[in-house]
Amino acid sequence: MAAMNGGYSDNTPAADPAGPPAKQNVAPAKTVDTQSVLKRLQSELMSLMMSGDPGISAFPEEDNIFNWKGTIHGSKETVFEGTEYKLSLSFPADYPFKPPKVKFETGCFHPNVDVFGNICLDILQDKWSSAYDVRTILLSIQSLLGEPNTSSPLNTQAAALWSNQEEYRKMVEKLYNKPAA
Amino acid sequence: MESISLSDCNLGALDSLSSDSIEEILESWSCFCSTTDAILNGNVEVDVEDEFVSYVHFLCNHGLRSLVEDQFFQSLEVTFETRGVSRFWHHFDAYINGSMLMNEASGLEEVLYKALEELSLVKRCQERTLLMLVHSLESHRDSTLDKKHTSDAERVYLLSKYKLMVSSVLMASIPRQFPAILNQYFKRRLEELSTLMDGGCQEELHDKENMDLDEKRKSFSGVGEMDIDEHHNRKKLSENSLLVKNIGKVVQDLRSFGFTSMTEDAYASAIFLLLKDKVQDLAGDDYRSSVLDSIKLWIQAVPFQFLHALLTYLGDSVCPGSPSYGLKSPLASHPSSFYPGVDTPSEGLIRWKLRLEYFAYETLQDLRIAKLFDIIVDYPDSSPAIEDLKQCLDYTGQHSKLVDSFISALKYRLLTAGASTNDILHQYVSTIKALRTIDPAGIFLEAVGEPIREYLRGRKDTIKCIVTMLTDGSGGNASSGNAGDSLLEELNRDEENQDIIDLNDDFNTDDKQAWLNAQRWEPDPVEADPLKGSMSRRKVDVLGMIVGIIGSKDQLVNEYRVMLAEKLLNKSDYDIDSEIRTLELLKIHFGESSMQKCEIMLNDLIDSKRTNSNIKKTLPKPSQAEGEARKSEFSLDALAATIISANFWPPIQDEPVNLPGSVDTLLSDYAKRFHEIKTPRKLLWKKNLGVVKLELQFEDKAVQFSVTPLLASIIMQFQDQTRWTSKDLAAAVGVPIDILNRRINFWISKGVLAESAGQDTNDHIFSLMEGADSNRTGTHGGSNDEHLMGDEEGDRSLASVEDQLLKEMTIYEKFILGMLTNFGSMALDRIHNTLKMFCVADPSYDKSLQQLQSFLAGLVSEEKLELRDGMYVLKK
Questions:
Q1: Where is the signal peptide (chain B) (predicted)?
Q2: Within a domain: residue B143?
Q3: Which of A1, A41, B236, B733 has its CA 20 to 30 A from that of B852?
Q4: What is the ipTM of this complex?
Q5: pLDDT in tens, A77-132
Q6: Looking at the 3D structure of chain B, how many domains does it have?
């Protein structure tokens, strides 16, 4: 019978990293706000990129992280299926304490979207909370497309037509301009 | 024809002539013609000459002098053509129509001699008759007291006219092969001379040796020996001079027939051919010795002697002490000492010397360049050849030849899939070192190195090989060979020479050279690293060039960190002296800050050693009872922990493993002691890392192993139960079945375990081999110190650099897809800038434009992206 006779040597534990302080840029008090906003937006971008939610996407414009371009695809089994809408998101300097301004860049025939692309969505106005982020905003808008709030419409024609989904679908297709690639 | 020219030229004179005198003139004209023919055809009688003179006088009196001359030359031409030239060429018929080959023509010399002899006979005859005419013309002039012209000018004019006629007749009828015949002749003569000289040289050497011996014995008799030596020399010279005289005569004859330039071409090309052969003969494929000096000596000995003798014979070697002395060959510092028997070389001779030397240098250079690849392969041994090549290139300045030919050799022979990365790197290092000799400014190196760097960038294991080369030298690892040593040496050398180099950084000489080269050169390839200023480029340093392959030192440092981590984790003692040394060297080169993490890793090990001994020292002696209970268990003495600051180590793969209970208790004991000593710190064990030394005791013997904890755990399970199904065993050691199956192969290959199929196809049964196969292990000797780290991809305890890179790249891919979704199409540099701008979290985007481009190309080939007119768009 084989017998074990040996010792464990050199097993490698990792010391609890109470060691050297983490490298952090301690910015002067004056710019703390901007710094933290930048950080927040960057981490939101990272999590948005890594989340890989289908049908929504956004990315900052080349030289200004406060202005983003967004893309939303109409959800399946709604009248907006197969459409793609461009959005613009502009973040205030005191984000995330104030909501970003979100507009449709592509014309959208929708009860809660006016002809200028303004969106009537509660979480973008009075129901805003700093717990929301770009991803949740985009998801909310995506679901808004399929479930409009017809009680307080910005586009009354669309609100009136909503009950007739077939006609509505035709209208969406008629008015839909595929954004240039 | 005569009448026409008569009426043309002398119309005025004719008018004044009476018909009688015309008759008379015509009469004497026809007589003149016939006598001329008679004289030229050799039927010369005494009175004919007088007649001839009188006719000439008569005709000249009537102002027909130019007619007389023309007629005479025409007759000369006709007879020369029929009697001389056609017969002359007839001699060579056999060679010309190919019935006799020239190279086997032992008779060629004789034929040439004979032909030349005959032709010069004809020519001499004709010259004599020409002189006759000249005399008669002179005497006529004397009689008419016309002293306007000096007779000399007249004679010179006629003779040169004759010469012109001779050469034009010959040239008009020259067969195509004649230059080749001449060439062949000179070649053979020269070869003869060369062997004569060679023999002489050897004899001379031999004599010298003898003389040295003699001198040692009786030094006072040196004078006599010298006499003998001189006598011998004279004998040799006389033999030579005979040969040279023959050649000289041929040359002179040929010259007199107007073949001057053709002759010169012929012997020049013969000399060059011989020189080329000689150079090739001397240089050969031996790169271990310098041949330049012996070539120079040979040039002095054979072709130069030949030319000297020839030119002297022809009387071209004149003006001793003329200003031509200033035209010394730049290579011969003391020209006069080289010419035995020649005090002052003539200008022509110097020109020849320069030509010969240039040709020799060029030939040797071409020869060496063609073999440069092989030369560099045995570089440290072949440095004499490199040194030769450097001198040749300095003289000829044909560096671009070297670059072109070497690059194509590299592409053909080195940069192929078959060559291992280590070999390529080794050759690259040798190339750097060799070319550093030839071109200290490193500008050619830049051009030559570019294809190698380009190629190496495409290889995945380049960085790893470089790091291995950098670090393995000190370990004395024989398998990595010279390459490793040389790089580590380089590291050392760099350190030692740093100050000296800085001091020697002389602006004047180096800059001038660099400027000259730069003018001759195409601009740096666009890819050349702009970060490397002219300062750093001028100082060719091997490490810098190596790092240049990778692009940034960060990648190299990172790879080094991974390798270092692996090495350190596999150490069972805390002996890190060689690592510290390497790190110190790298720090000098790459800077303290970039090596900081590595330093912390090493410090971790040093701290671990201290902590480890500290813990063991403060260990309370186990009470008697406890000691009894634990007797069969392990004591803390058997345990040595490496405590790492995980933040600074490369990501460590965490693989759960269930250690045997006794070991686990030991570990928690250790951790508890650690916590007591180092509150508030706690230990988090990475149980899958480390080395276990264990001994397996079989019935007849004990075998020692050093294995990973997982393997130790596996074999430990067999201590109580000799048969396990893979499923159960996997559960017992706490790893997935596939990993277990892979790892357990180690024990199977050692003959400790045996595998058999179970009821389920996926279930295997492992059972302990009771000593049956232990002979197999026994043959390896008692102990088996197997380090099986890294023998399989999955066996690595650390995420490799490639894995890290892949991980980074997936993040970038998401970003790129994200931005393209929202912006439609983007150009390469916009993507690059955007990534730089927004991809800042860990790991931040630090790739070059080229890396991004190749990554995007990968995405295009995966059909995720499309490239249209330089803009990337999402593939729909």
A1: none
A2: yes
A3: A41
A4: 0.78
A5: 888 888 889 999 999 888 888 899 999 988 888 888 888 888 888 888 888 888 88
A6: 4
